[in-house]
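Title: [Solved] FAD-dependent oxidoreductase 3D structure

Original question kept below for reference.
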Amino acid sequence: MESGQPGGRGLPRRSLFKAGVALAGAAVATTSATAVAEDTQDPDLGRDFDVIVVGAGMAGVTATRELRAKGKRVLLLEARNRVGGRTWTDTWNGHMIERGGTWVDRLQPHVWRELNRYELPIMADAGPTRAFMPTIGGFGEYDPSVAYVRQKELFTRFFDRSTEIFPEPFNPLKRRDLVAQFDGFSLRDRLNQMALRPEDEILLTSWTSLYGGTSERGALTLIQQWWALSGGTFEGFHGVNTYRPAKGTVSILNAMLAEAKPVLKLNSPVKSVVQNANKVTVTTRAGEAFTAPEVIMATPVNVWRTISFSPALPAAHQEATTTGVGVPHEKKLWIDLSNPTDRFVAEAPEGLGYPICFMGRFNDNQPVVAFSVDSTFDTTDGNAVERAVQKVIPGAKMRDYTAANWHVDPFSLGAGAYRQPNQLIRLHAKLQQPHGRVKFAGADIANGWNGYIDGAIEDGLRVAGSPTLSGPAAAAASAEERIVVPAVNRELYRGLGIR
Ligand SMILES: Cc1cc2nc3c(=O)[nH]c(=O)nc-3n(C[C@H](O)[C@H](O)[C@H](O)COP(=O)(O)OP(=O)(O)OC[C@H]3O[C@@H](n4cnc5c(N)ncnc54)[C@H](O)[C@@H]3O)c2cc1C
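Solution (posted by the thread starter after getting help):
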C-alpha cells in the first residue's frame, strides 16, 4: 500500500510539494461534490430481502433501481464509505475532480439515457490549444489539428476490419468466426503486424499502453470493439472523451438512488456468499449476515478472489478473477502546474521510460489530469512526479498533485476493465452466467462498452432483467439532446469535421 505521505520519500525538494496520494479505497472526507448517499439501513427492515446487491458502483446501483421498480426489497451492500466504485467525484484544492471514470458520450446510449432521464447537465472539455507529440528526437509541439492528422491515418489503419469483426458492436460474438481469427492478438501483435516506421509507431503506443495496461497485455479485440461502437471513426473514438457530467459522475448515482430508495449499507465489505437450496447468506467482514433468495455480485471481477463463495465459483469465474481483467497498474493524477498554465495535451510513447503516458489540461483554470500505467512509478514521491512531467514538458513547474492508485485499492484491485488475449471467446459469455442463486454484473463483463460507465449501466440492466440498448434503440437514445454547459469548444479536432 502506498503511504500517501505528503511530499513523498526522502528527497530534498519534497517540501516544495503538498503532494497527496489518495488510496482509491481509503476513507476521505465527504465533500459536497462527493455527495455520498446516506447510509439508509433501517434496523426495522430486518435481515431478509428479496435481492441483495453487492457493490454500489454504476452497475450495482442501476440493478438496484431496476429491481426496486419491480417492487423488490433490495439490500445494497457497499464496502466503501461512498457509492461510485471506480467512479469517484471528489474535490481537491477547490476543484471538482473525477478520480476514476469521467467522460460520457452520446455514443454510449445507456449512460446518455440516464443523463436525459434525470435531466443532468453535461459539460464539454474545451480541449487543448497545444499538443506535445512524440517524435524520434523527443517531443514536438504542434497545433492539435496538425498533430492529429497523421495519428488519424495510423489509427484508421490500426483498426482495419474492426466494424466487419463487430458488425453489431453491442453483441461482441455476433461474428464469432471473425473474432476467433483475432482473439489471440495482443495490441502489440497488431502493432508488429503493421510494421510501422518507429516515428509512426510511437504515435500509437501512448494509447495502446494506456488502454491495455501494456500493449503486450491488452487484447486487440476489445479496442476493435470500442472502435466499432464509436462508429468506426477516429473522431468518434477520441470524441467519447469530451463530455462529462457537469455535477460529477456521482450525480447519476445520486439520482438513481433517490428514485430507488433501497436499503443501502456503506462501510460493509462482504466476506462470504453461501448458498443453500432456498437462499443465499451474505456475511460482511464485520460479521453481519443477510439473506435473500437472489444475490447480485456487482463488484469488480478482480475482487471476486477476495470473497469466499460456497459453493466455489465456476472455473471461468475463477480463471477471470485470478488472471485479472482490469488494467493492472493504472494511476490517475491531478497536477497543479504553475508552468505551463495553458490548455495542452501530451502523449508519451510506451517503453521509452516515460512514467506518464497521457496528460493534459482540457479546461482553463483546471489542474492537469495525467495517467500512468508504469508499475515502477512511485506517486508518493513528489519529485518523481515532477520529473515525470518534465520528461515530456521540459521546464514544467509543479506546485501540488494528488493521485489515485486503483491497483492497490482492495475494492477494485485494478482500474478500468481491459480484456487480455483469448478472454473474449473463452470467458465472456460464461462470466454472465449465474452461479446458482448468484448473478454477476459490472462493466468488466458488459456486452457493449466493456470497461466503461456505459457498460456498467448496461450490465446492471441486463442482470436485473431489464432491456438493454443496441441497434435502432441505441441510436434513438443517442439522438436525444443533452443540456451542455458551457458552450462547446471543439478546438481539439478543429479541421477534422468532428461532431
Ligand atoms: C482511472 C479510471 C479512469 C476511467 N475513465 C473512464 C471514463 O472516462 N469513462 C468511462 O466511461 N469509464 C471510465 N473508467 C471505467 C469506469 O469507471 C468503470 O468501468 C465503471 O465505473 C465500473 O463500474 P462497475 O459498477 O462495474 O464497478 P465499480 O465501479 O468498481 O463498482 C463496484 C463496487 O463494488 C464495491 N465492492 C468491491 N468489493 C466489495 C465487497 N467485498 N463488498 C461490498 N462491496 C464491494 C466497490 O467498492 C464498488 O463500489 C475509468 C476507470 C478508472 C479507474
